[in-house]
Write a structure and sequence with these properties.
The structure holds two protein chains of two kinds. Chain A is mainly alpha-helical. In chain A, 53% of the residues lie in helices and 0% in strands. Chain A has one domain. The radius of gyration of chain A is 19 Å and the shape is rod-shaped. Chain B is built from 20 helices and no strands. Chain B is globular. By secondary structure, chain B is an all-alpha fold. In chain B, α4 runs parallel beside α12. Classes of the chains: A mainly alpha, B mainly alpha. At the A-B interface, α1 and α2 of A face α5, α6, α10 and α11 of B.
Chain lengths: 68, 465
């Protein structure tokens, strides 16, 4: 019986690891110091926003190249 | 009775040539199976070796049916779990795991380590060890490539994942074909197996995970790069760093409602092994029903038939297990197990602690010499002929499993899963040499093995009273 509970628990863990986090939940995981996020989908439509995002993402790309 | 059986029964008249030929065939078969020249499937050398054993009468044809009965159930159970993973893959459910690992880690290197370890453990628990390596290694490679980690940092996630995935086949027996065959030989049911084995093997896996973390602590980044991954900029089929501005208007649509149903079926099938076998329902039938339910659900929801499943399922596993058992049965016929019995019987019969450490140690050596699949079969056949009392037979068999699942990790030769892992890494140009692997394994595995065996002794003493 206990092993069945363990299987259910591990199944739940596997479910969480496989099911993508909803887009709406993502900002929660960003640190406070990060540059403001812009909804990427909106870049299709707003050229002005695109320019602003380019700057912030360029910084992020530099960050992403090395890790502590 | 074949002339090989005569050799076995009349030990005084042992003809060296009659022993030498099967040993050479066996050694060559295992060598080619591990070496895999021209990337040949491991079933080819084992089938050729087994055919030679039959041709020379080392294993009489009359024994084939009983050998088939022993291996077929285990092979069908493993094949069914592979079918389940093929269906999940076909529905695209594994494509998002790397995305999820990165986002859930919240830029913490330690969290990513824990999540990759949990993923590898769970995948083995629900599918099987080789399947787990085949699925999780590309996922972890994708994750570490997206994060643009250095080679040593990549190994800090990949090697623990591989070791944990392989060792995770010990706790519940159904994740490894060798364990299932051995279970059938000693006549132990899976509920008794789990009662005796779950706690010691989980302690062993816990110790190994902790030691791996301590070893790789300096290589695991404290803070991971912030990728700002969204479902729309995540490259499902690309293993490289996603461009932050890339948007996939045609990103594959995944039916997450179907995913929930599939997960319920997979978990229910695994739980069914323990809940239904006491009622006399065999493991392979529960596994077949689980796989058939997944196929039916996929067909009902997306009208996809079974063609891809039939094509992708590695049916040769049935032949592989069958031919490997013929080889081991042949070694038993020429008296190899008799030699082991003569040498080890007194020590194993001494007390349970001696039995556990002798068999655990023996299986570690045998597995790292010629792979754990034949090793566990030889070890189990040896035990069944030692005339042991029921409790000693059970604990010595479980020590065999710890030796073949945990002790076998000392070198890449020990398990097919680790060989497979090395191969996948090479394909993805991630460098780890056999020397590097063995150096890390020799730091981590012996302590994990000793603690597992000691836990088995204490736990079974407590259970048996």
């Amino acid at each position: 019986m206990l092993v069945t509970l363990f299987i259910l628990f591990t199944g739940w863990i596997l479910y969480l690891l496989m099911k993508p986090i909803e887009e709406t939940d993502l900002p929660v995981y960003m640190s406070e110091n990060d540059p403001p996020q812009v909804e990427i989908a909106s870049l299709h439509h707003e050229r002005k926003v695109n320019e602003v995002v380019d700057v912030s993402l360029e910084n992020d790309k530099n960050e992403a190249r090395g890790c502590e | 009775m074949s002339r090989w059986k005569m050799t076995k029964t009349r030990r005084g008249d042992v003809n060296d040539q009659m022993i030498l030929l099967p040993l050479i065939i066996f050694a060559l078969t295992i060598f080619v199976m591990i070496w895999k020249p021209f990337r040949i499937n491991e079933t080819i050398p084992t089938t050729i070796g087994a055919s030679l054993f039959l041709l020379f009468g080392i294993v009489p044809l009359s024994d084939l049916l009983s050998i088939f009965n022993i291996v077929s159930g285990a092979a069908i159970t493993i094949l069914s779990s592979i079918v389940m993973s093929i269906i999940l893959e076909s529905l695209g459910f594994f494509n998002w795991v790397a995305y999820n690992l990165v986002n859930r880690a919240k830029q913490s290197g330690l969290k990513l380590f824990i999540y990759t370890a949990a993923l590898c453990f769970a995948m083995t628990l629900f599918f099987n060890n080789d399947g787990s390596i085949l699925i999780t290694t590309p996922i972890i490679i994708k994750t570490v490539n997206m994060l643009n980690l250095k080679n040593n940092q990549k190994i800090a996630y990949l090697l623990p994942g591989a070791l944990i995935a392989t060792a995770a086949s010990a706790p519940i027996a159904v994740s490894n074909i060798a364990n299932l065959i051995a279970l059938k030989i000693v006549g132990l049911d899976i509920n008794s197996y789990v009662t005796l084995m779950f706690v010691p093997s989980m302690i062993g896996i816990g110790v190994i995970t902790l030691l791996l973390y301590l070893y790789f602590k300096k290589d695991i980044p404290k803070k991971l790069p912030n990728l700002k991954l969204h479902m729309k900029n995540y490259e499902v089929n690309n293993r490289s760093l996603p461009h932050p501005l890339s948007i996939h208007t045609t990103s594959p649509q995944v039916d997450w409602g179907l995913f929930k149903i599939c997960m319920i079926i997979i978990v229910a099938t695994r739980a069914g092994f323990f809940l239904l076998t006491p009622f006399g329902i065999s493991l392979e039938w529960i596994a077949i029903i689980g796989a058939a339910a997944l196929i039916a659900v996929r067909w009902f929801k997306s009208k996809v038939g079974v063609k891809d499943v039939v094509k992708k399922t590695p049916w040769h596993i049935l032949l592989f297990a069958f031919s490997m058992y013929i080889l081991v049965y042949g070694l038993q016929n020429i008296g190899l197990t008799d030699i082991l019995i003569q040498q080890l019987s007194d020590v194993v019969k001494q007390d349970r602690l001696s039995a556990i450490f002798t068999m655990g140690g023996l299986l570690t050596v045998l597995s790292n010499t010629f792979n754990n699949l034949p090793a566990v079969m030889i070890g189990t056949l040896t035990l069944t002929e030692m005339d042991l009392d029921a409790h000693t037979l059970q604990v010595a068999y479980l020590a065999n499993i710890i030796g073949s699942d945990i002790g076998a990790l000392l070198t890449p030769v020990g398990t097919l899963a680790t060989l497979l892992w090395m191969f996948i890494l090479r394909e993805h140009k991630i460098h780890i040499s056999w020397k590097q692997y063995t150096k890390i394994a020799f730091i981590v595995i012996p302590l994990g093995l000793i603690i597992s065996l000691l836990s088995l002794y204490l736990w079974t003493n407590w259970i048996f009273g």
